[in-house]
Write a structure and sequence with these properties.
It is a single chain. The protein is mainly α. The chain has one domain. The chain contains ten helices and no strands. Helix 3 packs across helix 6, helix 4 runs antiparallel to helix 6 and helix 4 packs antiparallel against helix 9.
Length: 278
């Protein structure tokens, strides 16, 4: 690899990383009561970027391999969705399999940081941290692929588009799971971790459906200007969906922060700070 290639690689990493860290700072500042220190948050970010991303890629590759092999032995066209080499199989992977696998692995990052959850609002903050880390590294990998095919400009363009869409979605969906996980940890009545995991999966799948609408329309036979226009509209709708989702997470953080809860029903009491030892 030449020095120029190394510089381009560094540019792709920086362009991918800076938006995700900006979003993380934005979410962090939403919590007013005992704002989280950077160390644990960056640890959660790294968990999402490295462990969750790589493990998700491995599990999805295994699913595609096993599903493709199984579809060759199962009779009838109704099992074609298991074939990773078919268009329907790709749609099934993107819209169903990936959301379930990726949200589960990002959720494990929230559980790994359970000891850092001091109040209810910490749940969505740590969830967003894990999700933004996942979104950063996934976006970098997509940008790297575009760079290898079309050069630096293509890689940066794809990264910037994903930075205002997919990265925010990953932070938002896992942020909502984090809220549900914290509700369970602090025994808040009502929906808890399992329900919010399904919500995260639904958010993820819905976003992927919007982002893939142009390809889906082409598959069902819609072509020409109508398909192109629908694809552009769907892209902007996906971006709006992502920004709306992260704003909702910030609203959840504000409403579950300790000062806000003091004005509520009083059914939730955050844990007391540890006693000082002499």
């Amino acid at each position: 690899m030449s020095s120029a290639d190394l510089v381009d690689l560094g540019v792709l990493i920086v362009v991918s990383l800076l938006p995700a860290l900006f979003y993380l700072s934005w979410v962090r500042r939403t919590e007013r009561y005992r704002t989280e220190s950077w160390g644990p948050l960056l640890g959660a970010f790294a968990y999402g970027a490295l462990f969750a991303t790589f493990t998700a890629g491995i599990l999805e590759a295994i699913f595609v391999s096993l599903g493709t092999t199984a579809s060759g032995y199962l009779p009838g066209p109704e099992f074609v969705f298991l074939n990773g080499n078919s268009t329907i199989g790709v749609f099934f992977l993107v819209l169903v399999v990936a959301p379930f696998i990726e949200e589960a692995l990002k959720a494990s990052g929230v559980a790994a940081n359970r000891k850092s959850l001091r109040i209810l609002a910490d749940g969505p903050v740590f969830g967003a941290s894990v999700g933004l880390g996942f979104g950063f590294f996934e976006t970098f990998l997509y940008g790297l692929g575009a760079f290898l095919v079309g050069g630096l400009a293509a890689g940066i363009t794809l990264i910037l588009v994903r930075s205002v869409s997919s990265v925010l979605l990953h932070g938002s969906s896992t942020g909502m799971f984090g809220y549900g996980y914290a509700r369970g940890r602090f025994a808040v009545k009502g929906p808890q971790g399992g329900s919010y995991y399904l919500l995260a999966v639904a958010m993820h799948g819905s976003f992927n459906a919007l982002a893939s609408l142009g390809v889906i329309l082409a598959f069902v036979g819609v072509s020409g200007l109508a398909a192109e226009a629908a694809g552009v509209v769907a892209l902007f709708a996906a971006i709006a969906f992502a920004f709306g989702a992260i704003e909702h997470v910030r609203t959840v953080i504000q409403s579950s922060d300790y000062p806000a809860l003091l004005k509520g029903s009083g059914r939730y009491q955050p844990p007391m700070p540890p006693a000082r030892t002499r």
